[in-house]
Amino acid sequence: MRYLGMAQMEEGRVLMPDAFKEVAKGQVYEVVEVGGDILLMPPPLDRERLALLEKLARKSIAEHRQTLEGLAR
């Protein structure tokens, strides 16, 4: 996984960070919400792949939050 930076909503559009410019122009993404977190993924998204991504994303997000909570103490 690579962190690209923070996206921002402006006038109904999502503005992506500068690091996202490395992605091919015109690329289309599937947008999925997992536990309140937004994921952008290249298509196609079939049910099996989506279920696996959801499982892995939930696990990764939970682990990340535990790490942050540990650092905050």
What does this molecule look like?
This protein is an alpha+beta fold and 73 residues long. Helices cover 36% and strands 22% of the residues. The chain contains one helix and four strands. The protein has one helix spanning 47-72, and strands at residues 8-10, 13-15, 30-34, 37-41. A two-stranded antiparallel ribbon has the order 1-2. The chain has a two-stranded antiparallel ribbon with strand order 3-4. The two termini are 26 Å apart.
Task: Please name the defining characteristics of this protein.
73 residues; alpha+beta; two-stranded antiparallel ribbon; 1 helix; 4 strands; 36% helix
How is the topology of this model organized?
Elements: E1 8-10, E2 13-15, E3 30-34, E4 37-41, H1 47-72
Antiparallel strand pairs: 1-2, 3-4
Radius of gyration: 14 Å
Overall pLDDT? 81
Order of helices and strands: EEEEH
Low-confidence stretches: none
End-to-end gap: 26 Å
- How much helicity do the residues have? 25-40%
Class inferred from helices and paired strands:
alpha+beta
What fraction strand?
A: 15-25%
Strands, total number: 4
Shape: globular
The largest beta-sheet arranges its strands as 1-2
For the largest beta-sheet, the strand count, sense and barrel status come to: 2 strands, antiparallel
Number of helices: 1
Brief write-up:
The protein has 73 residues and is α+β, with helices and mostly antiparallel strands. The protein contains one helix and four strands; from the N terminus they run ββββα.
